[in-house]
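With this grant's support, we have settled on a layout for protein records. An illustrative entry appears below exactly as we store it:
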Amino acid sequence: MSLLPDHITQPLERLNKVYFGDSGRTISISAGEMLVAQGQECPRLYLILEGALVAYREAETLQGSDLPTETVTRKHEVFRAGPGSYVCVQAFFSRTFHSSNDIVALEDTTLAYIDNTTEAVDEANYGSLEHQFIPVLMHELAARNIRMFSHATEKEEAQRLLQRAEMAATLGQLSAGIAHELNNAVGVITRRTEFVAEHMAEFLEEEDKINARLFRYGYEDTSFIAASELRTLARRYERELNMPQPAAKVLAHIIPDTKTLVKFGPDFVRHVKTNYKFWELGHDLRDMQVAAKHATGIVRAVKLLGGGNSTRQDGIDVRESVNDAMNLLTNKLKHITVETELAPCPTLTADLTELVQIWTNIINNAYDAMQQAGTPQPMLRIATSSHTAEGLQLLPTTYVRVSISNNGPAIPEEIQEKIFHPNFTTKKLGLDFGLGLGLSIVRRLVDSYNGTIELTSNDGETTFSINLPTTQINGKN
């Protein structure tokens, strides 16, 4: 059924019947065959009955261009046309009778035609041939404009995606180089911190046993005391033992209650009062080591995403890739509660970079969804496990499962499939806007491992479960 209004379709139907209904004025050309060449004489107006044509035009040489001459003339597509479309319209009605394009059959095509000897039928009622074909001209002009717009839109979108891919590739190369340099610097900090801590402990053991003990307590302190409890106890020590505030705070870290305080004795308390900085020195060195280790993890994750590893190798521990992803997103994850249940799993044949990409995209999407919805007490839970199920070729296959859950808003059932499509995003435009590529990358990577993605979502929890086979079949995971 035609989408054109009756006042256009009815004249076209009459013209096609009257002028193109003569079976003796039809031709057929095969796919790839040229109907008419650019500049060639063309005294006919064609109507496509079946098949499709494409028009190419040779670009004019730009004046002043110093580009080298090409051995093959470059031609550009002008338009494509299918059944019901007219070709050689400009040449016929301008009376130049020369084609401005190469017109080639995309497939086997049948055309009807009229030529410059054709006379107007019922001229008294409908006017001259040119007047009768005004609807044809308008229809063809509108159709070609629509086709050109669609083609230009597709070309613009392709260029945009190509530009984005080039930017990502450049950023990956830069990040890999920066990560390498940062890794060297962090490595120096790590080694030197260990050296200073080791020799400081040896020196203090020789000079003063209690100061050495304070240093060791600070260096080995891994306990967690709530800030409110720490402040309360420090104020009590400060008041009851007449200690300066920094010393009272150190003593609160070392001795968590007054009963234990008696066991340490007054000499130790006096040393803390005057030499508390030895504890702070040990604690600061420990913090430096922890920070260096943390920085190493972040740098390693950035280096991986920048192309640090590009092959699938045996013996990959999925928990390592999850930790790398969390290190990469540390700045975001510090704002939410993160729970992990990383159970030991069989190793995979995988590319660590690809695995990090999968977890990073899912975690990042979960975080953004919770932030956008203003989820109270946002929580993320990541768990690993393994199971056996029917895989390719109906063989029992061991799978590693990574489940990433969040308590953000539910994903409506009607868009649960769409979220994996390229360029589909639910994020609002802003400083951290969605490009709609994250989950499509996840699906592409999981598919390449012959894995599966399971999505469950309700008002209480949304969970993405990724199942990756541990074995390879025919060169694929």
